Amino acid sequence: GNFEEEALQEALDDLGLEVVAEPKGKVVRAIRVHNLDVFGDDVRALAWLNGLRRTTREDVIAREVLLRPGEVWDPESIAESRRNLKNPNQSSLVVIRPVRPRGNPSPGNGAMGPEEVDLLVVTRDVWSLRVAGSFESQQDVLSSVSASLVETNFLGRRKLAALEFDMDLGAYSMGPAYIDPNLAGTRVEVAGTAAAVFSRDTGRIEGTRGQARVAYPLWSLDREWGASLSVRHDDSIARSFEGGELRRYDAPDTDEDDDLPWEYDRRELDVESEVVRSFSGDLIHRVGAGYELELVRPSILEDFPGDPVQRGAFARDVLPRSERAAAVFARYRLFQPRYVMYRDLDTFDLREERRLGPDIRARLSVAGPVLGSEATFVRGRGQIAWSESLGDDGLGAIAVEGDARLQGREFIDNEVRAAVTVASPRIAEMVRMVARLDASARLRETSNRFYELGGLTGLRGYDLGEYTGTRRVRGNLEARTTGLRMWLFQAGAVAFWDVGHAADRFRDLSLKNDVGLGLRVLSPQFSRFVFRVDWALPLQGADAGLPGRVTAGGGQVF
């Protein structure tokens, strides 16, 4: 792509190097790192900003390269190194090439031998000291904001330190976060967040949430062992919304319309520890085992306006199950380490690598009092998925997932999901068609969970959460143009059609449709994710027709 080609050529010119066309069988003599400024010659007017931040240290980038000096050039190790380095919070592009000095003299006196190459890593940092994040907005309703005063490349060491702010329709939270993906060069990953939660209406504090994780990840496909320990807690108020207003509840046990607010107190604690063994080859097999603890304690708010009958009905129909579930589990995963590069899929000209082939996952948990659980049950989860190239640069994926809990002699809280996603090859290098179709169902649901559909969950022309139920079908079709480069931006257009509905039974589904147009803008110096604005026209329902609805946010809708 243009961004990578320009960055590579700039590095070659600066270092006096040339690309080696045939590196097969050659030994890596040295690793060279050339990290370009965020703002280059194409945006000279902003070059002064480069002095306000620390560019990633060369040794930090070099240690992420899996191929070391003295080893034979290996394309698979190079591809995996590129994937490891391509953190969207830190690098807008990563290019790795075999090189040698231009006009390299004959061997001797320190010159490169005929069977040697240098490994050149070219990166360009994204602007790391910034207010980062995303938001979702529909019409005049700001439904969610996720923002951080963040340094994603702390001291040039690819570590993240931030003060985070998150807001939904009911509450907002603030607190610090820190992520170190490679602690002191040991490959140990540590991460943690903590936040206070405040009511969006009153500004009063109403809870806390946080999480911590330490792990020795499988940072290479050749690694055999990994382990992790994570803890998460959430003590806050749970709410559900319809449009921009708090969803209301009407108890079936009473004659009048109760008009009760859909909110309750939620206390949750999750702890999980796991050890993983990986077996490499043409297919990667990973087997894990561990212990998990899930504590859920919902309760009705003290100021809940209902009488005892209404409170009892609300607890029965709305609150999730209260329980302490402790289990040992075994997990298995199989996938094929086959990667293909795409462009103009989600991020215009930037390289996107997708893994193809099968992806099979299975997890079995056994809970009982001896482990600290209040209930005895067996829970199974599974996924069978496959992704494959279509034509020259198209992509297709299909997935089927299931989740079930056997308690006593019955299966409860079952969920099945199936999805198909297709991205056509580019048409005349100008347009790509992208489609998604998925269906989901919750069966014998005992914890009052349901799907929502409307707004940014799949029907952009309808209210946020306008349709709810334990069955959902949705489809989306978009025609996405390639990006037009303008200064430090790339921009493209989208035409789309959405269809779907949610209800408690499949036979009650009544598909709703909308059509619309959208704009996508990307600035690689600031983020790998597009900014989007969509206008959608609903075709059925009370709000069908003009003026339609406007939604905005970060990233593609699907």
Name the beta content range: over 45%
Rg, nearest Å: 26 Å
Query: Unreliable runs, pLDDT <50, ≥5 residues?
Result: none
The class by helix and strand makeup works out as mainly beta
Share in helix: under 10%
Largest sheet: 20 strands, antiparallel, barrel
The end-to-end distance, rounded to whole angstroms, is 23 Å
Quick one: overall form?
Answer: globular
Give the number of helices. 4
What is the average of the pLDDT values?
89
Number of strands: 32
How is the secondary structure organized here?
Layout: H1 2-15, E1 17-19, E2 27-36, H2 58-62, H3 75-85, E3 91-101, E4 116-125, E5 129-138, E6 141-151, E7 160-167, E8 171-180, E9 189-199, E10 205-216, E11 225-239, E12 241-242, E13 245-246, E14 248-249, E15 260-261, E16 263-279, E17 284-296, H4 308-317, E18 323-335, E19 338-342, E20 352-367, E21 377-390, E22 394-407, E23 410-423, E24 431-443, E25 451-453, E26 467-469, E27 471-481, E28 484-486, E29 489-503, E30 512-522, E31 531-538, E32 549-554
Parallel strand pairs: 2-4
Antiparallel strand pairs: 1-3, 3-4, 5-6, 5-32, 6-7, 7-8, 8-9, 9-10, 10-11, 11-16, 12-13, 14-15, 16-17, 17-18, 18-20, 19-20, 20-21, 21-22, 22-23, 23-24, 24-27, 25-26, 27-29, 28-29, 29-30, 30-31, 31-32
Would you mind describing this structure in some detail?
With 558 residues, the protein is mainly beta. It has helices at residues 2-15, 58-62, 75-85, 308-317; strands at residues 17-19, 27-36, 91-101, 116-125, 129-138, 141-151, 160-167, 171-180, 189-199, 205-216, 225-239, 241-242, 245-246, 248-249, 260-261, 263-279, 284-296, 323-335, 338-342, 352-367, 377-390, 394-407, 410-423, 431-443, 451-453, 467-469, 471-481, 484-486, 489-503, 512-522, 531-538, 549-554. The chain has a 20-stranded antiparallel β-barrel. The protein has a 4-stranded mixed sheet with strand order 1-3-4-2. It has a two-stranded antiparallel sheet with strand order 12-13. The two termini are 23 Å apart.
